[in-house]
Amino acid sequence: MNLSYWEIKSWLTNIDYTIVGSGIVGLNCALQLKKRFPKATILVLEKGMLPQGASTKNAGFACFGSLSEIIDDLKTHTKEEVFQLVKKRIDGLQVLRSTLGDTNINYQQLGGYELFSKTDDLFEKCYSKTDDINQLLYPLFNDEVFSFKTNAFGFENCHERLSFNQFEGQIDTGMMMNTLIQKVYDSGIKILNNITVEQFSEATNSVKVKTNAFECSTSKLLIATNGFASGLGISEVKPARAQVLITKPIQDLHIKGTFHLDQGYYYFRNIDNRILFGGGRNLDFKGEETTAFGQTERIQNELEHLLKSTILPNTTFEIDQRWSGIMGVGQQKKPVVKQLSNHVYCGVRLGGMGVAIGSLIGQELADLVHA
Ligand SMILES: Cc1cc2nc3c(=O)[nH]c(=O)nc-3n(C[C@H](O)[C@H](O)[C@H](O)COP(=O)(O)OP(=O)(O)OC[C@H]3O[C@@H](n4cnc5c(N)ncnc54)[C@H](O)[C@@H]3O)c2cc1C
């Protein structure tokens, strides 16, 4: 790229911290570094025109685990571990809300529901363990998290009782990211879009960074590329594409809240009198292990089928838009937040909970750096 003296001097010289990726994690990392080191020069490099992974593509559930998910986690984790997992999501949501403000992200606590199939015994299993789970989580809210409600939404092909989480909320994902990006700019942090970091190498006191457009040098490099992390050599993370659709506005839509279906493999919510519906990765785990955006007929057909048969059986609706996002997953649910080499760090593998934990993980990534 043909860069001028001015461009090099003002944007690409004496960089203290370079962050790769402008999702929730990268931007919160940048803000936390600025808080710790107000005089530092901080540069964020982002391959997309906008953040282009999961942070602008997600469903905007401000959730910390459905009843069946928490019960399932107890099969592989101790009670204390599950408690800490949930606590982290609640703490993370608190950081998100206090950093950006509820009005700026349109946070609404409309509650979260879980639908159960009629054809298996998941309802009975969850129902019988509800008291135990409420007891486990009691110290976090001083109240009972889960109760049961009868299906007042007209859902079909599901159990007549739904579990209800009174503390689950939802946000407007676009407002959240817009506010976050603005806050980063206002703090004097630079973001360069359409820049892909291709390689980096450690020098004695710095890191050399090669992008698709230029090369530069930085004192520290922080990688927040989540589902794309293997592209920069972080092998613990696999990409996981998640497909979504949204209906056109529906008159008198009475479905309000966030909803989990089929043990969290499907999720839907109301937004602007529409239903946003996503999931179905379990239909083709291998095929969805990709960093390529796109939709498949198989998953989109199943989403439409469930919308017609279960969620909106007696309502005429039209699909307005379809899209996908790329998450980062791995063997364990815990994110990878660690130092990779002398001057390089990463905060990746956020799974399907990045709205909840992303702000906190960004701060933790920044706090790995020594002054
Ligand atoms: C469809 C969908 C629905 C979801 N729903 C929810 C939900 O309801 N609630 C919830 O809590 N979570 C949800 N999630 C998960 C959540 O969105 C993510 O966990 C979170 O956004 C991850 O943030 P991040 O900053 O780690 O990653 P990302 O937002 O993916 O950011 C990584 C950034 O790095 C950039 N990048 C990658 N490689 C390079 C490179 N080499 N050079 C430069 N830039 C690069 C990417 O373009 C991207 O912008 C959902 C995810 C998806 C896809």
TrEMBL record:
User: Which InterPro entries does the annotation name?
Assistant: FAD-dep_OxRdtase, FAD/NAD-bd_sf
Q: Where is the FAD dependent oxidoreductase domain?
A: 16-368
Record's protein name? FAD-binding oxidoreductase
Native source organism of the sequence = Psychroserpens algicola
